[in-house]
Amino acid sequence: FNSPNDAVLAGDGDLYFTDPPYGLEKGPGDPLREIPFHGIYKADTNGQVTLLDSTISRPNGIALTPEGNKLIVANSDPSRAAWFIFDLDEKGAVTNRSVLLDVTAETAQARGLPDGLKIDSRGTLFASGPGGIWIFSSSQKLLGKIRVPGVASNCALTADEKTLFITADSLVLRVKMR
């Protein structure tokens, strides 16, 4: 691996994770880099690791829908800032990939890239991106944005989903949910 980053645990115990270059001291050109691509992987409960995708340039944040049949991955590449959706079959293998939203043009107006993300029990996606947190419905429709000072990097929901925490530069922000 290059630099495993974000991970999400599926209901069946499988672990999905991204492997961008961000932990490498010299970035993508670091001589300690072990493989020539950045991947999205699944580690099953038997310890078998499977490469799901090696074509996304900077895979970062990762989340599973409540049904466990879709994987959403943030691409933190300024030249292709986007969120991708991977359809998964009953064994957790990728059957299709599509773009949820490409926000490359928005990076010229607001700081930040797609990075950390979370999905609540209703399937609402909260995703850090240009200008703050982008909110998508379970049907992948953009509902709105939470603008934050600085660059939003990640977010987390409390267990009761009544509070959203956001990291942005040197801040930790709290948003009470309705």
Features:
178 residues, mainly beta, 47% strand
Q: What value does the average pLDDT take? A: 95
Strand order of the largest sheet: 1-2-3-4
Q: Please tell me how large the radius of gyration is.
A: 16 Å
SSE string: EEEEEEEEEEEEEEE
Number of strands: 15
Percent of residues in β-strands = over 45%
Helix content: under 10%
Number of DSSP helical runs: 0
Flag low-confidence runs.
Answer: none
| Class from secondary-structure proportions | mainly beta
**What is the global morphology?**
globular
Distance between the termini: 40 Å
Would you give an account of this structure?
Helix content is 0%, strand content 47%. With 178 residues, it is mainly β. The strands form four sheets. It has a four-stranded antiparallel beta sheet with strand order 1-2-3-4, with no helix packed on it. Strand 6 (70-75) and strand 7 form a beta hairpin. It is globular and about 40 Å long. The mean pLDDT is 95.
